[in-house]
Amino acid sequence: MGELSDYIAGLDGPDRDVIERIRARAVALVPDAEEGRSYGMPALRYRGSPLLSVMSTKDHIGLYPYSPAVIDHVAGDLEGFSRSKGTIRFSADHLLPDTLVDRIVLLRRDEIDAKAK
């Protein structure tokens, strides 16, 4: 297992299922992603850069794509969700759509690929 898988294994309830689903989708979309840490959080990393973290807090689940540009790019699809320059907040009762999660993962992957060239 890895940092993110270990983190998920320590969770209970619906947040665990939501976070595992997002982790599994990200790995399916970016099979070269590896588990590690970034900014002190368990994360998926790709080509040496943070790809995505998703963590449960007392009040919400936070999705961290490590890119204000990615969040800005999908801002039009985030109505009804709280966000800041580095995180998107949601809950097990008010989920981010899978298609939106996929877009975020792929946008971040493409951003990392572009910087590597």
Commentary on this structure:
There is one protein chain. By secondary structure, this protein is an alpha+beta fold. It has one domain: Aspartate Aminotransferase, domain 1, CATH 3.90.1150.200. Helix content is 42%, strand content 24%. It contains 4 helices and 6 strands, in the order ααββββαββα. It has helices spanning 3-9, 13-29, 68-73, 98-116, and strands at residues 34-38, 41-46, 49-56, 61-64, 82-83, 88-90. It has a 6-stranded antiparallel sheet with strand order 1-2-3-4-6-5. β5 and β6 form a beta hairpin. The chain is globular, with a radius of gyration of 13 Å. The termini are far apart. The model has no long low-confidence stretch (mean pLDDT 96).
CATH architecture: Alpha-Beta Complex
Strand content: 15-25%
Rg: 13 Å
The number of distinct helices, counting runs of at least 4 residues, comes to: 4
Alpha-beta classification: alpha+beta
The biggest sheet, with number of strands, parallel, antiparallel or mixed sense and barrel status, is: 6 strands, antiparallel
Order of helices and strands: HHEEEEHEEH
CATH-defined topology: Aspartate Aminotransferase, domain 1
Low-confidence stretches: none
Mean pLDDT: 96
Helix-residue proportion = 40-55%
CATH class: Alpha Beta
Question: Can you tell me the number of structural domains?
Answer: 1
Measured between the Cα atoms of the first and last residue, the distance is 30 Å
- With strands numbered from the N-terminus, the spatial order across the biggest sheet is 1-2-3-4-6-5
Spatial shape: globular
Record field, number of beta strands: 6
InterPro entries: YdhG-like
Protein name: DUF1801 domain-containing protein
Pfam family, one: DUF1801
Domain YdhG-like: 16-105
